[in-house]
Structures are given as C-alpha cells and as structure tokens.
Amino acid sequence: MEYLPRVVQAVAGDDYTVYAYFSDGSVRRADIKPLIEKGGVFSCLLDKELFIDRLTVMNGAVAWDVAGNRDETVCIDLDPWNMYEKSELVDDPLAEDAA
Question: pLDDT tens digits, the chain, 99 residues: what are they?
Fold first, then answer.
C-alpha cells in the first residue's frame, strides 16, 4: 500500500518557512515565501503574526486558520502530498539535541 502523507504537527520557522511533521515520522521544511509573493489567497500570510499564530493542522494538512474559529471553509491549506514530495527532508528542529 502506498503511503498517504498526513501532517500531524506544523511549526513556523524563520523567514516564512514551515516545518511539517508527517505521520511516518519524517519532518519536512517548506519555504512559503514564493506562495505569498504570488499574492491571491496567500497574500494575507505576509502578516507575520497571522503566519505564526494561525498556523495549524486541518484534515491532515498544514493550514492557516484565517478566521480564527477552526472553520475549514475559511482556511488556507497546503496539499500534504505535494509538501511531502517537494519539500526538503530535515532533522526535527524541536529535538533536544538540535543545534
């Protein structure tokens, strides 16, 4: 059976990056700046406070709870498969031995 990526935790990194923790134990880092620079729905993420404070996981995907009420119809989410396949595999930045 093919692995279906599911995000279980999301952590904001420096300079508009996101660390996505997947159900297989892997951690992947994605640079969100290019999406923000394209504008459209992602442009609100330029607000650094919103980017950090509203980052969450919804339906197994990295998401931003834009409305602040856990309404999945008013969120911005990233395709977990795309994030799993195209984002850089990294060590856990939250691990105690992380430098």
Answer: 688 999 999 999 999 999 999 999 999 999 999 999 999 999 999 999 999 999 999 999 999 999 999 888 889 999 999 999 999 999 999 987 655
Give the predicted TM-score (pTM) of the model: 0.91
Residue 11 has a CB neighbour count (10 Å cut-off) of 17
- HEC string of 11-72? EECCCCEEEEEECCCCEEEEECHHHHHHCHHHHHHHCHHHHHHCEEEECCEEEECCCCCCCH
Structure tokens at 87: 């984002």
Instruction: Map residue 6 onto helix, strand or coil.
Output: coil
Strand partners, 58: 61
Find the angle CA(23)-CA(96)-CA(59) to the nearest 5 degrees.
25
